[in-house]
Amino acid sequence: MPPEIVGGKIEPEQLYDAINILLSLQVVKMVAYQPGSPRELPNGWRHVESTAPAIDALVLFKKLHSGHWKQEIINFIRKAAQYFENIQRPDGSWYGNWGICFIYATWFALRGLAAAGKTYHNCLVVCKAADFLLKLQLDDGGWGESYLSCLARKFTPLERNRSNLVQIAWTLMGLIHFGLLKETQYLFTEQQSSGSILRRKMEVFLNRKLLELL
Q: Mapped to the 3 state alphabet, what secondary structure does the chain carry?
């Protein structure tokens, strides 16, 4: 894109600084990245949703600048992928802290694992995650999850087993990372003649502790 739209080219030294910060913020005990840790919090915040984008960024950086902190980046990615494997729930899902809830976090985990080179060919954790998502598919072809999942820490469908377009998109992006490019019929049935899709209620959730205070 032209510089007048996106601005000038970022110098490599600026990218190096950004990568140095990412590497420094990895929580040692649970190897998960979250802004604010470990300096501002004793044990750091350990979130799947924060760790996956960090892996993405480091993988892309390593392709473009393979000589900078090469081994440190490899170690970061390996530990972060291991973190996903360590905290996966028995049903194949992950608990989400910034969205609702198990669908949201499982999408992020699959994204991070795919960036780390984990696929259904070489990682049982990935297969279990995809199986979890596929088992949740509703009769209309979609997916839906209630905010009550966040409080109960157990998957809870939306009332009347209805689908939610946002959560369908999250699920499909997760399955794309797994390697599945099907199950999109519901989205097509919701598409208008103009090509757009009507806005639906956003099933979003900031933090379990905040919700408990309401």
A: CCHHHHCCCCCHHHHHHHHHHHHHCECCCCCCECCCCCCCCCCCCCCHHHHHHHHHHHHHHHHHCCCCCHHHHHHHHHHHHHHHHHHCCCCCCCCCCCCCCHHHHHHHHHHHHHHCCCCCCCCHHHHHHHHHHHHCCCCCCCCCCCCHHHHHCCCCCCHHHCCCHHHHHHHHHHHHHHCCCCCCHHHHHHECCCCCECCCCCCCCCCHHHHHHC
Q: Which residue in 15, 30, 13, 122 sits closest to 60, CA to CA?
A: 15
Distance separating alpha carbons of residues 100 and 94, to the nearest angstrom = 11
What does the pLDDT look like over 181-203, one tens digit per residue?
Answer: 544 444 445 555 564 545 555 44
What pairs with residue 191 in β-bridges? Answer: 197
Report the DSSP beta bridge partners of residue 197: 191
Mean pLDDT of 155-178: 91
- CA 77 – CA 90 distance, rounded (Å): 23
Query: In one letter, which amino acid is 64?
Result: L
pLDDT digits (tens, 9 = 90+) for 107-132: 999 999 999 999 888 999 999 999 99
